[in-house]
Amino acid sequence: MPIDPEVAIGADAGEVRFAWTPADVQLYHLAVGAGADPVDPRELRYTYERDLQVLPTFATVAANLRTFEPPAVSYPGIEIDLAKVVHGTQAVTVHRPIPTSGEAVARTRVVDVLDKGKAAVVISETVATGADGPLWTLTSSIFARGEGGFGGRRGESERVPPPDREPDLVLDTPTLPQQALLYRLCGDRNPLHVDPDFARTAGFETPILHGLCTYGMVAKAVTDAVLDGDTAKVGSWSARFAGIVLPGEPLRTHVWHEDGRYVVHTTAPAREDALVLSDAVLTPA
Fold this sequence. Notes:
6 helices; 12 strands; single chain; alpha+beta; two-stranded antiparallel sheet; 285 residues; Thiol Ester Dehydrase, Chain A
């Protein structure tokens, strides 16, 4: 079905009621690399219920933890083949520290649909609200190859280039060969990340790591490095998915402290520093 921007833009995609437990939080943290040093007190705050805290990027999976089917890209005025879709950008703003357990309602609406010629970009916003008010706001975009040309506006490019100086910090983060198998247990069952045949259909030689897994791993690495691992000090985290990550390859993250926030740039050094995350910003609460 061709994209109909007049129907899609502003469309209410409905609400999802969901709940989570400390075990869900721990699983997510393990899936984004927590606990590599199982006796480090800071790592135990991600993995042990005694003093558990919640990384804000948990918001990206909280509503889908009980999802066991591959996702569908289906909104009013939009139907897109999953094999054509890659994640473009993701941002999370937390309105208060996320509790280790709770119940909430998430409402999603389509903010915009952009026509890039050979591709379409669908931007959505999800607000999760608990009994005591708003918990977090997620803003994400997906890039759908072959779905452009529907007569929509192209939109502006919102870039955050790194400062023209050496980074203040360089962080190296490993990924596991089985990282995608762990992360998919958090609710993202897209076969692109586990099925070699599906990955080839989508244009990749092998299954790739979930972009949101990379997003969470880098958020944790930066939080640990600049905020002493205190997740309550994170106000927002945003990034553009600039390239793929292969499970098992290391990540290298450059961090600049600039204007009260942290500008972040992540590469895959094993592939000639191929760019992975760009235009990334962590803003303290």
